[in-house]
Design goal:
single chain, mainly alpha, Ferritin, 2 strands, 59% helix, globular, metal-binding
């Protein structure tokens, strides 16, 4: 037995290159006579050429053969990445997301990311801005008097600073549509029901009000204390309106309807100040010209006119929504006025 072991070891040392390189398909079979029996270990041939020393070490190792090449491959990839760094002017997204080239009707590049050409429109300035919903019951009177009460400190604070007043007003007016749309969205998910388009209608309203604010910011830069006021008012108003909408959606929509009526009054006063020369009729911001499809020579007066028309449409939508619910119906039972700015 001892002679057999000695003979086997000698044969291994002499014929190591050919003995340990017996190929078996995709892997390699490795024999061992040290214990008087053959042991098969799976491995890789490193390009089809077996090296005795390497195969011997591989036979004694428990790590897969690919791990020997992993550091080299990783180093090569890092080198390639460093070489290519800075060569690409436009970084491509791993997720395949890229902004297509969008142009205006005249062929010039569309400059805005916050809205697209197909989201622009011409405002219907023929709408009746003097229409008023007369309070008919306790909830109507509560909503109406609350809005009138809240207007007093606003007028005292801003007085005749129409631009700042409008800017502050839009930070408030953009909240109800988002809150109402969010709550209707959750209700739709919870009850497995369609919304009748009202989710989209209310979110459109919130987006439209936000665009009013983006326009006003181009005209008036808020001071630090006005920003602080916006922060406080938004925190209080969002939570208060959320609770009101959860408790009584019809009261919430009636409140917004009256709020929009007050917005119309404020913008009418703004227009009168422009016409009287109290406020300079400056050129319209570029964002307003593109969003409302105004002529290139549009002025501040044109901008305030279309914003006031938008507020009149929002007034109608919210009073309409409140009327539906006062009749004992749900919003989804009546078609939503989509695209009705």
């Amino acid at each position: 037995m001892n002679r057999f072991v000695v003979r086997s070891v000698k044969q291994c040392l002499v014929n190591g290159r050919s003995y340990y390189g017996i190929s078996t398909g995709g892997g390699a079979a490795y024999g061992s006579a040290l214990v008087g029996r053959s042991v098969e270990l799976s491995g890789q041939r490193n390009g089809g050429v077996a090296f005795g020393g390497f195969e011997w070490r591989r036979m004694m190792s428990s790590a897969p053969a690919s791990s020997e090449k992993a550091p080299l491959e990783r180093k090569e990839k890092e080198t390639v990445a460093e070489d290519s760094k800075g060569k690409d002017v436009v970084a491509s997204s791993y997720w395949g997301i890229s902004r297509p080239t969008i142009t205006r009707e005249d062929g010039t590049v569309w400059p805005w990311n916050c809205f697209m050409p197909w989201e622009t429109y011409k405002a219907d300035v023929s709408i009746d801005v003097k229409k008023h919903h007369v309070p008919q019951n306790f909830m109507d009177k509560l909503a109406y008097r609350t809005v009138k009460f809240l207007r007093v400190p606003m007028d005292m604070f801003f007085q005749r600073r129409y631009g700042c007043h409008a800017m502050m007003l839009e930070t408030i007016a953009a909240v109800p549509g988002m809150v109402g749309g969010m709550l209707l969205h959750l209700k739709s998910l919870r009850k497995f029901q369609h919304s009748g388009g009202w989710i989209k209608a209310l979110l459109e309203e919130a987006e439209n009000e936000r665009m009013h604010l983006m326009t006003m910011v181009e005209l008036v830069q808020p001071k630090w204390y006005e920003r602080l006021l916006v922060l406080a008012a938004q925190g209080v108003y969002f939570n208060a309106f959320f609770l009101v909408y959860v408790t009584s959606p019809k009261l919430a929509h009636r409140f917004v309807g009256y709020l929009e009526e007050e917005a119309i009054i404020s913008y009418t006063e703004y227009l009168e100040a422009i016409e009287s020369g109290e406020v300079k009729n400056v050129p319209a911001p570029a964002i307003a010209i593109d969003y409302w499809r105004l002529p290139k020579d549009a002025t501040l007066k044109d901008v305030i006119t279309v914003i006031r028309a938008d507020e009149a449409h929002h007034r109608d939508v919210n009073h309409f929504a409140s009327d539906i619910q006062f009749q004992g119906k749900e919003l989804r039972e009546a078609p939503a006025p989509l695209g009705y700015h």
